[in-house]
Amino acid sequence: MPLHRRFTARNALIALLAWLFVALLFHLKAELWPSPAGPPLDPNFSKDDQQDTITHGKDGKKLGGSPTTGKRRTAVVVASQKKENATWLDEYFPQWEKNIYRVDDSSAPLTVPENKGRESMVYLTFILDNYDKLPDNLLFIHPNRYQWHNDDPDYDGLPMLRHFQIPYLEKEGYVNIRCAWSLGCPAEIKPLEEEGEHRAAVHAGGDYKEGYEALFPGKEVPKRVGVSCCAQFAATKEKILERPKSDYAHYRNWLLSTPLDDSISGRIFEYSWHLIFGKGPVHCPTAEECYCKTFGRCGLQCPESGSCEGRYVLPKFSTLPDGWPLRGWGGEQRDRLGPEE
């Protein structure tokens, strides 16, 4: 065989072996080091939003893979009466699961064993009935879109819930959906000083000590209890499950058996939810901190610890007039103080 042919055959063999070696490397890489499933998660956005980014392209079309992997369920639990309307939640928050209870309708799909204790009976009934299958994030709220205690310049629940920071909830476990201190903070109830008093029909101070001792047997009664009103809050499944189911059964049994008026038993729970979910007796973060972390409204002007300019102002009455927000208490026309978004 001529010399140049031997070199040509050798070169061809070397090239073939090199190609096979490279192909083997690519095969091993694909088998042993698979590429990541999607972009890294951004800590500034909720897991729901990030999962949607991972499973959908920029055009909105679903990408390959399971769309529910790692996605957390968010649900609302609503305490309502037949005369009240919570359908706005379906319109504006279709992505959330809805649990609309009718406390005064025994034939409703979701109702309570007895209409006592106001919204607390609904909240406890939901937890007990769903303890082993709770959604990941839960918002416990009242039904109407416009309510005097909603933390919004127009008392509008829509922007309040739209701005609620789910990532902050997932970090904290429990978050009150209200920042203004008017009613509740810094110390609404003084259980030891006020024991036995009945100075106002809506104030539970006179009965709080007895209620606290029944709900939390063996625990020292705090001297001060403070949290911004009015029993609208959020909690994660993990936070709820920190307590055994028997605790929630105990709480509801107390509600069912107490001779206290609904306005008082419900109020005792209003100032106990933060304790149930692990906060101290006085849970009153400054309004500036609360608005920033809870609603993403940072940089507000807050001359006082419990209020910020342009946010919540306690209304003159505990009900809103017909035609609100476009009509005031005197029937006069009014402009919205804040956007709906």
Automatic annotation (TrEMBL):
<protein>
    <recommendedName>
        <fullName>DUF3431 domain containing protein</fullName>
    </recommendedName>
</protein>
<keyword id="KW-0732">Signal</keyword>
<feature type="compositionally biased region" description="Basic and acidic residues">
    <location>
        <begin position="45"/>
        <end position="62"/>
    </location>
</feature>
<dbReference type="Pfam" id="PF11913">
    <property type="entry name" value="DUF3431"/>
</dbReference>
<feature type="region of interest" description="Disordered">
    <location>
        <begin position="39"/>
        <end position="72"/>
    </location>
</feature>
<feature type="signal peptide">
    <location>
        <begin position="1"/>
        <end position="30"/>
    </location>
</feature>
<dbReference type="InterPro" id="IPR021838">
    <property type="entry name" value="DUF3431"/>
</dbReference>
